[in-house]
């Protein structure tokens, strides 16, 4: 049965159905010749003054070049099309479906969808920027207010004792340090991804972090159980990965306040992945706060004891290295952070 005769036989049912579809439709025979186009904008390209049927490669070269294979159409497939139209860039998705006597090509215009996705992404970025600015203003307003008040007190008293002057300067220095800490965290939060990377053992990075934490005044009598995997090698920036583990472990050390147990397990649960499980014996994280734990500037610490950027930066670093961070509470007590990273595999 020839293709054109088949279309004619089905014309009373098939063609009105295809014309009613919201997507343009093109039908081709085994030789790639267009023998039908639905009453859509594509029909204007097909139904020209040329009496003889033309091939798909002549009428729609961008569609033809995006499809895999040659005529006769042997494979069912789909493809994304980006082309320049009279009103700008057009985004289309095409589906080719095999028929007994040829093929049927459906096209869907996704330009408005792409534009809406771009607009939504821009709106989300602006909203994030708004929250970021609000958080920065909140974090900086308290130390700035304290500095301003102390300066006013020192200026109003002409006969300031050396002890009072020293106390005032110490207060100013502490608040300036807090402002600088917020600034440093913001720089880290907005850093670029051009830092040098190299292979290194994850456990060696963790060892250096633990050595630094032992000098923290909150460490006290905390016991650490570190189970290593010498073959857990990561390709990345060691300093950034150390910051990830430092932020997580520092929170655990501070919440346990010198008493408790900290467990670190490095292993490879599945091929190609490294998993580091960090558990503490602290009070855990309230369930209502769990969804916000990685939000910028979110902290449960008293004012002046945290910026709320540590875990946000850690999550961003892990994401840039192809990994993830998850958090949950232990079954008995304490919190558990699960850091997954890609395993470095040497190429032959």
Architecture overview:
This protein is α+β, with helices and mostly antiparallel strands and 348 residues long. The protein has 3 domains: 3-109, PAS domain (Beta-Lactamase); 124-189, Helix Hairpins (Orthogonal Bundle); 198-342, 2-Layer Sandwich (Heat Shock Protein 90). 42% of the residues lie in helices and 23% in strands. The protein has helices at 3-9, 14-20, 41-46, 56-59, 61-66, 111-156, 162-189, 202-213, 238-256, 310-320, and strands at residues 25-29, 34-37, 77-85, 88-99, 102-109, 198-201, 223-227, 233-236, 261-267, 273-280, 324-329, 335-342. 24% of the residues are buried.
In brief:
This protein is an alpha+beta fold. It has helices at 3-9, 14-20, 41-46, 56-59, 61-66, 111-156, 162-189, 202-213, 238-256, 310-320, and strands at residues 25-29, 34-37, 77-85, 88-99, 102-109, 198-201, 223-227, 233-236, 261-267, 273-280, 324-329, 335-342.
- Tell me about the largest β-sheet: 5 strands, antiparallel
DSSP strand count: 12
CATH architecture of the largest domain: 2-Layer Sandwich
Beta content: 15-25%
Order of strands, widest sheet: 2-1-5-4-3
What is the count of helical runs? Answer: 10
Structural class: alpha+beta
Query: What is the CATH class of the largest domain?
Result: Alpha Beta
The CATH topology label of the largest domain is: Heat Shock Protein 90
The arrangement of helices and strands along the chain is HHEEHHHEEEHHEHEEHEEHEE
Low-confidence regions? 47-51
How many domain regions? 3
Shape: elongated
CATH level-four homologous superfamily name of the largest domain: Histidine kinase-like ATPase, C-terminal domain
Task: State the helical fraction.
Answer: 40-55%
């Amino acid at each position: 049965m020839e293709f054109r005769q088949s279309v004619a036989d089905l014309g009373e049912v098939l063609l009105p159905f295809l014309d009613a579809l919201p997507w343009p439709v093109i039908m081709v025979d085994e030789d790639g010749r267009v023998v039908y186009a639905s009453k859509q904008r594509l029909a204007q390209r097909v139904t020209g003054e040329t009496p003889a049927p033309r091939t798909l490669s002549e009428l729609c070269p961008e569609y033809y070049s995006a499809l895999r294979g040659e005529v006769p159409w042997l494979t069912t497939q789909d493809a994304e099309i980006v082309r320049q139209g009279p009103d700008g860039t057009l985004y289309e998705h095409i589906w080719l479906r095999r028929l007994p006597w040829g093929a049927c090509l459906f096209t869907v215009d996704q330009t408005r969808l792409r534009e809406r996705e771009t607009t939504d992404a821009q709106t989300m970025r602006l909203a994030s920027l708004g929250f970021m600015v609000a958080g920065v203003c909140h974090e900086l307003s308290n130390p700035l207010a304290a500095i301003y008040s102390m300066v006013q007190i020192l200026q109003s008293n002409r006969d300031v004792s050396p002890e009072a002057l020293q106390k005032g300067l110490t207060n100013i220095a502490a608040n300036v340090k807090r402002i600088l800490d917020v600034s440093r965290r913001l720089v880290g939060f907005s850093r670029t991804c051009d830092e040098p990377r190299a292979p290194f053992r994850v456990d060696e990075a963790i060892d250096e972090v633990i050595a630094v934490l032992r000098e923290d005044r909150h460490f006290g009598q905390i016991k650490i159980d570190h189970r290593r995997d010498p073959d857990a090698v990561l390709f990345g920036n060691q300093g950034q990965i150390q910051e990830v583990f430092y932020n997580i472990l520092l929170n655990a050390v501070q919440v346990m306040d010198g008493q408790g147990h900290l467990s670190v397990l490095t292993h490879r649960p599945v091929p190609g992945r490294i998993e580091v499980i960090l558990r503490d014996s602290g009070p855990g994280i309230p369930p209502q706060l769990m969804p916000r734990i990685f939000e910028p500037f979110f902290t449960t610490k008293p004012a002046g004891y945290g910026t709320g950027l540590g875990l946000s930066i850690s999550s961003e670093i892990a994401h840039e290295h192809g990994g993830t961070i998850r958090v949950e509470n232990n079954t008995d007590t304490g919190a558990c952070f699960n850091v997954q990273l890609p395993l470095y595999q040497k190429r032959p």
